[in-house]
Amino acid sequence: MGNSLKRVAVLASGNGSNFEAIIQAVEEGRINCSVELVFSDKPDAYVLERAKNHKIPFTSFMIKDFSSKLEYEQELLRILKENQTDILILAGYMRLIGNELLEAFPQRIINIHPSLLPSFPGLHGIEDAFNYGVKYTGVTVHYVDSGIDTGKIINQAVVDIAPDDDLESLEAKIHQTEHIIYPDTLAKLINKGE
Ligand code: GRF
Fold it and tell me: Which of 37, 40, 117, 184 fits 60 for a cystine, CB–CB 3.0-4.6 Å?
């Protein structure tokens, strides 16, 4: 990608606490990129409010407004291209990425998942690990491929499940860890300028 400032778009569906952690790191100059766009497939997602607060352009539309996922992704791709996006960062984007986007951003789509992959992929990584009774779970930053949380692992952090943890306290620990590891990993990756 060369050494120019990377243009990043963030895709998110919900609260956006990871987006917040990332944008703070960018504002502090820790990640050498400019966040050019936040997209949400949920028009009422709180992440859009966060984008507004940080004066980051944002847009939103729903898959149900299109006749197919392909058309939805084509529109998203059109916007991303218009923005000259180099890297796509998923931050709680609750959809599988289709071929349209995967092909346009080879090894350029990054996600965070709240478990130690390949254990506990899918929508309920924290709860599934808690219910299974593992003593250690964690967080994984990985490239996105066409599978569910199957892409190449970039970084992981371990979170212990203490005997007195309940689901809520575990969720808090996981999110706290995410907010450290995601910006740090993105900084390492993006600042290398590869
Ligand atoms: C995080 O737990 C992340 O690992 C998962 O979705 C959640 C998003 O949380 N992919 P937030 O919207 O960033 O607060």
Answer: 40
